[in-house]
Predict the 3D structure of the following.
Amino acid sequence: MGLFSRDRCEGKTPEQLAMMRTAGLLVARTLELVARQVRPGMTTLDLDTLAETHIRDHGGIPNFQLVPGYRHTLCTSVNDEIVHGIPGSRVLEAGDLLSVDCGAEVAGWNGDAALPLVVGGPEAARPEDLELSEDTETSLWAGIAALRVDRPLYDVGAAVEDSLTDSSTRRGREYGIVEDYVGHGIGTSMHMDPQVPNYRVDGRSPKVCDGLTIAIEPMVTLGDQDNTILEDEWTVVTRDGSRAAHWEHSVAVTEAGTCVLTALDGGRERLATLGVPFADITPA
Ligand code: MG
Ligand code: MG
């Protein structure tokens, strides 16, 4: 984890939040499209093309292409790949655990989200992969629920970790929580301050301000969190070959409540089950 400014928190105005909801919804709909279309026999590049076309057709720019050295719209991380898998000629097989990460910029504002899919659907899945995905998603929502104005930002990572510890105990298995990659502020760029650890960290935390927008993105493995980067200089894989899942949402928090910018319903349904006030943000 690098250094970052601890005390400055830039909240967005309602107009800016509306722009971010527009970008977030485009990401949500693109991921929904990918989830609907993915089939055994497709390549990861097929999915990338589908996503790029969808984003551009709806007035967006694939913002991953704005990251120096990256030319694709998605990251497609298969099985033991944790994050930053590059779309290419790899043919997807039934039962593959595919984490799809997608981002879009619309009118200068950014969205970023990721979810794991099982190629061929749940019936093709290994049960432990479905549990891993479910538990990782649960931990993401625990982190979202812990994001409150005037609270320490690091409460988010602590809630993610506590949720995964609970799930580990319940399943009778040990999860690896990847600590080498973190969530981030998001706004006029995809990656901004502050860094958002997806695990518990000691030390003084920045305080959450009204209108803060961040991406929370737990990466969890069925084995150890130890990882390495492949020769392509992007793809992060587990060293022990265990499978990984990556869930991510871009989230806005205001005095009025929380809006999950990259959820189709803004998080309304799930936040209600968590007792978190929902702030509806109408897209611009
Ligand atoms: Mg992402
Ligand atoms: Mg991100």
Observations:
- The first helix runs from residue 14 to 37.
- The chain is about 30% helix and 25% strand.
- The pocket of magnesium ion (ligand 2) is lined by residues 112, 184, 215, 217, 248 (CB under 6 Å).
- The CA atoms of residues 2 and 195 lie 8 Å apart.
